Each structure stands twice: as structure tokens, then as C-alpha cells.
Amino acid sequence: MSEATRPTIELTFACPARGCGAPVVGPLTPETSSLSCPTCSTATTLPEAAEALAAEPFAPCPVCGSNDLFTQRDFNRRLGLLLAAIGLLLGPFTAWISTIAAIAIDFLLWFVVPEVVICYACRAQVRGLPKAKRPPAFEIAIHDVYKFDRRKPPRQERAVAGPLQLRLRHEGGA
């Protein structure tokens, strides 16, 4: 595949700098060695970028080094729940046609919305990976291992799981 036709692979993660937590977004290529935060200008090194892009399935996480990644649809869950709730709430007034319409819209979205690869440890997101490189779907058992601090990624200081978690950890609240 030529350079011009290769799909763009994008990496998104929370800035691990103390007190920042801003989203860092940038292209992920075998040559990518770091990405800088647009808010605090802190550069986050990505030593596993080339290794992860070459592996099938995609692993380890370029940000924290964890090998535990999963694939899910890149759709806002709150919006999906809102769609279902509206369909159900309007159901009795529309002879349940609104509920059937909400189910149909959800079904169509499942085919249209692309997939995203997410790290269990740091919640970094990788978009644009070919289907053959995507890891398996979400597994609650692996999620719980990270949620209850039974497993740590190689670079634990980067596994901040989003801006709120970053602030809580640095302020001693989590």
C-alpha cells in the first residue's frame, strides 16, 4: 500500500503531566517517537509505536506499554442511551413505533460507526487501524483487574485514565 493510500492512524490520550490531563491527539506512524500536549507542551515519548503498529493484533499500548487492549464501536454511549430512552419513553404514545425506530437507528449505526482500539490501563484510543490488527472485544474481567489496581502497566505514571483520574491521583484523592 502506497504512502498516499495508507489510512491515517490516530492516537488520543490524556496528557500525563502533573495537573494537565488535556487530550493529546496526533498521527501514529512507525516514525512517531513522541506527541506533545497542546495545553502544557509536555512531550510524551512513545517508544513502542513502531512495535505496536507492526504487531497483529496491535499491542503494546504506545503510551503506557500495556498489552491489554480492546476494540469497541467509536460511538458516544450517553447518546446511545439517550436514543434508547427516548424510543422507550415515546413508545406508549406512538404505538411503540418510536421504540422500533430507535432500535432500527441503533442497528444502522452499528454498521456505520467505525471501531476504536482502547487501552484498559490508560484509556488511550487508537483510530484507523485495519480490521486484521484490532484486538478482541472488551472483557469485563480484564477491565476489573485494572480498575481494582491488581495489574499495573509497564509505565504506570502514564496510565492516568483521563483528566479527572489524573487530577485525583496528583492531588492525593484516588
Count of strand segments: 7
Helix segment tally = 5
Strand content: 15-25%
Question: What is the CA-CA span between the terminal residues?
Answer: 46 Å
Query: Low-confidence parts, pLDDT < 50 over ≥5 residues?
Result: 162-174
Structural class: alpha+beta
How many strands, which pairing sense, and closed or not: the largest β-sheet? 5 strands, antiparallel
H/E element sequence:
EEEEHEHHEEHH
**Strand arrangement, largest sheet?**
2-1-7-6-5
Number of spatially distinct domains: 2
Average pLDDT, all residues: 84
| Proportion in helices | 25-40%
Cα radius of gyration in angstroms: 19 Å
Shape call = elongated
Provide a descriptive summary of the structure in words.
This protein has 5 helices and 7 strands, in the order ββββαβααββαα. The protein starts with 9 loop residues before the first strand and ends with a helix. The longest helix is centred in the middle third of the chain and has 16 residues, at 97-112. A 5-stranded antiparallel β-sheet has the order 2-1-7-6-5, with no helix packed on it. Mean pLDDT is 84; it is low at 162-174. The chain has 2 domains: 10-74 and 115-170, no CATH class; 75-113. By secondary structure, the protein is of the alpha+beta class. Helices cover 30% and strands 17% of the residues. Helix 2 (77-90) packs antiparallel against helix 3 (97-112).
